[in-house]
Write a structure and sequence with these properties.
By secondary structure, the chain is mostly beta strands.
Length: 792
């Protein structure tokens, strides 16, 4: 048995008492579940670490020889493993003992760390399915957080469902678990009479960690129990604390970890055949197969160099359709391409000043990412593709972040995009400071430099500051952000420039001891938005908002909420530069045209209702209904709106999954209740998991829009003229259109990096609103992608 730390030896008596209790529980479980080893705990009980007794520092034993990962904890080596018990509830109410018993065994060898999980479920059936990677959110699951640098800022997230289906990513306090990055690890599990049992092996080749002969890692375990909607943690985690990861336990004295040479070579071959209509005939163009590849070299245990040549970055599934609530804001779509996801946590920067999706189709790219002591490093260079006759954009991006103290940091970002003689560069600094145990101060300042190609050099600022007070039952957030109208971030994503935004959001939460509610939160919101010029001149905000948010978690996993708004919006003249009105005589003759100018201010009042069901074994659903008086941005007048988002997940078997989503955006004029705009987006995704690595999927999405002929609704009621790209003014006319996208995919992915994708996608359209019978195929295509991961 591995040696106990001095911190733990004083609790040897408690460990033996706890071990006696565990032996009794397991003995009873063994009678009902023969899958448990008959000789489990027949010898001296393992070193036990009870989270509720604050026994959260352990030295797991180092065992010799390999352990077969078969989902059954019946090998002799498991008898030596450290045992984690004593879980606490974290959500919806923290601090109380977990209603479900969980045991986690921990040990390691020269080349890997092992975890064994026994999750006891006495309240009902276990939720488990044969799912694709990262699709276990509807199942019971256990998530391991491994903070291998013990910096209390980011951790590897290794999660499994009862059948050992994997989900992985990077966990941070700011954003939770980012499931886009994938790592190689082994896991198998099975449902038992007492609950479920899972075995996990995480090779040291798959993760990055400190360069030290003996090192300490942060660790915590999160268990999600679907029958109740509860989350439970091994260490006692306070929801009101500034950091989740800072409340983790410690794996100490991990010694002589052998990572070896980490060299991944990932050749990729893709082939596409695209079809389109040429006059009356359908024509197909079969492209030559494209050969490319990725390579990753682990320079050290904490620093990696990645390279790619002509990678295939095609999406195998179309982006989920989104509706525009405010045309002043651009829509954000996350990057899901593997090369950019590797080490993506090292490129994270406030206000998304690094957004790798701006690199559309690189010919080649090189990236260095990792950690050097307390310095997080991310450096990326890429040559993007370009249409014939255009210059290829060249990107150089650098992100550095220095850890300071327990939870503070100082960061720097530099981005450079050069296209021919034109360039855009952004330089910025950001910082985070934790003080007074409950307060977090964040700040950022950046400047963009744009010039070349005959343009004068311009330098424009961005700044962002926020103060947070954390707490279990109360707290607040204050933020102030401003972006100059000529601030340009060609390597980043800014949803809006020429804006200053101030927000104050206090919060109060109640935890009723009886009744149907687990928790109730109320948040009033005071919000102001200016254009840069009005902000610097000290005038009143363009948009003034007094809103509120009330949410409730109910027993059994139900949830509901209501968001109300009372707002005043000032006319945004820059949106309407291409709109004009005709002046007419009393007889109706046109005299001239004038620029459109809307009502100075509009007042809005409304509410949003949200509702969600528990995560039942075969079904779950949610709804979001928005209604009230809001802006009619098409004509800048008051409107009556009704926005709906409905979502349903159905799992009739443990291999078959159906997701149905419907989004509708309906805007009517307040003056006469006539329809201005209607957009409808139904979407369905159907997946069948043939085997663990093999599944087939169909995604169908219909996007239909109807827009009325526009008029000056708030003033003259005259028709609106629109200036086209050719400079000609044309009267607005009613429009209808529908688009349908269908995608089929066959996916075989035994591990990250080794894949076979075969797919077919087709786009259909019509000039009528929601007329499926009138849809005609406009384009389609077949593609095949094959890649294989060679690891040394």
């Amino acid at each position: 048995m591995g040696a106990l730390s001095p911190h733990t030896r004083g609790r040897r008596v408690n460990a033996h008492l706890c071990g006696m209790h565990i032996r009794l529980v397991v003995a009873l479980a063994t009678l009902a579940a023969p899958a448990l080893s008959a000789h489990a705990y027949a010898t001296e009980p393992p070193a036990t670490y009870n989270g509720r007794s604050n026994q959260t520092t352990l030295s797991p034993p180092k065992v010799s020889g390999a352990v077969k990962v078969d989902g059954r904890l019946d090998e002799a080596a498991w008898l030596e493993a450290s045992l984690l018990t004593g879980f606490s509830q974290y959500s919806p109410v923290d601090g109380i003992a977990a209603a479900d018993s969980t045991e986690v065994l921990v040990m390691y060898t020269d080349h890997a760390v092992y975890f064994g999980i026994r999750a006891f479920e006495t309240h009902g059936p276990v939720h488990a399915s044969h799912a694709d990677r990262d699709k276990i959110g509807a199942d019971d699951n256990v998530q391991l957080l491994l903070d291998t640098f013990r910096d209390r800022r980011r951790a590897y997230s290794i999660a499994v469902n009862p059948l050992g289906i994997q989900s992985d990513g990077i966990f941070s306090d700011n954003s939770g678990a980012d499931l886009n990055p994938d790592f190689q690890f082994e896991s198998k599990g099975n449902v038992t009479a007492y609950g479920y049992e899972v075995e996990i092996r995480v090779p040291f080749k798959s993760i990055r960690f400190q360069q030290a002969k003996s090192q300490n890692w942060g660790i915590n375990v999160i268990r999600r129990v679907q029958h109740s909607g509860h989350e439970q943690t091994w260490t006692r985690v306070a929801r009101g604390a500034p950091s989740f990861l800072a409340q983790s336990g410690t794996l100490e004295n991990l010694s002589a970890l052998k990572r070896g040479l980490v060299l991944d070579i990932n050749p990729v071959v893709t082939q596409r055949t695209t079809g389109s209509r040429a006059t009356t005939q359908w024509d197909y163009d079969a492209e030559r197969p494209q050969f490319g590849g990725n390579a990753s070299w682990g320079l050290t245990s904490n620093l990696a160099l990645n390279a790619t040549i002509k990678p295939d970055f095609s999406q195998v599934e179309a982006d989920v359709g989104q509706v525009v609530f405010d045309p002043r804001q651009a829509l954000f779509f996350p990057d899901k391409r593997p090369f950019f996801l590797e080490g993506s946590e090292n490129f994270s920067v406030p206000n998304s000043l690094i957004y790798t999706r701006t690199i559309v189709a690189p010919e080649a790219a090189l990236k260095l990412s990792g950690k050097m002591g307390g310095l997080n490093v991310g450096v990326l260079s890429a040559i993007d593709g370009a249409p014939p006759g255009s210059d290829r954009p060249i990107y150089n991006i650098a992100r550095f972040r220095r850890d300071l103290g327990g939870q503070s940091h100082l960061g720097m970002v530099y981005t450079d995009r050069v296209e021919g003689e034109s360039f855009n560069r952004v330089v910025g600094m950001d910082a985070r400071t934790l003080f007074g145990k409950r307060y977090i101060l964040n700040g950022q300042f950046a400047t963009s430099f744009t010039g070349g190609g005959g343009k004068a050099l311009s330098s424009r600022p961005l700044f962002d500051v926020s103060l947070l007070q954390t707490g279990r039952s109360s707290g607040f957030t204050f933020l102030l952000k401003a972006i100059h109208p000529e601030f340009v971030a060609s390597s980043g994503f800014l949803s809006r420039v020429d804006v200053a935004h101030m927000n104050f959001t206090p919060r109060k939460t109640w935890f009723p001891s009886s009744g149907i509610f687990e928790s109730v939160s109320f948040t009033p919101i005071i919000d102001g938005t200016w254009t840069w010029d009005r902000f610097t001149r000290g005038t009143e905000p363009n948009d003034i908002k007094f809103n509120s948010s009330t949410s409730a978690l109910l027993k059994g996993g139900w949830r509901t909420g209501i968001y109300t708004w009372t707002e005043s919006f000032k006319y945004p003249d820059y949106l309407y530069g291409n709109l004009f009105l005709e002046r007419r005589t009393n007889g109706g003759a046109v005299t001239d045209t004038v620029a459109f100018s809307g009502t100075d201010r509009l007042t809005n009042l409304g509410a949003m209702f949200t509702f969600g069901t528990p995560q039942w074994r075969a079904f779950s659903g949610s709804a979001e209904i928005v209604g009230g008086q809001d802006d009619n941005f098409d004509e800048w007048s008051s409107a009556l709106i009704l926005y709906s988002t409905l979502n349903a997940d159905w799992r009739p078997t443990d291999r078959f999954r159906v997701n149905a989503r419907y989004v509708e955006q309906r805007t009517h004029r307040k003056s006469d209740r006539t329809l201005v705009r209607l957009r409808s987006i139904p979407r369905i995704k159907v997946e069948y998991q043939v085997t663990r690595p093999l599944f087939v999927r169909f995604v169908g999405q219909h996007d239909a829009t109807k827009i009325d002929a526009l008029r000056d609704d708030s003033r003259t009621d005259a028709p609106i003229l629109i200036r086209g790209s050719d400079g000609v003014l044309r009267q607005s006319t009613a429009q209808e259109r529908s688009r349908f996208r269908a995608d089929w995919l066959l996916s075989f992915q035994p591990n990250p990096g080794t894949v076979l994708f075969a797919g077919y996608g087709a786009s259909l359209g019509t000039a009528q609103f929601f007329s499926p019978r009138e849809l005609e195929r406009t384009s389609d295509g077949f593609f095949v992608k094959v890649s294989y991961l060679l690891r040394r």
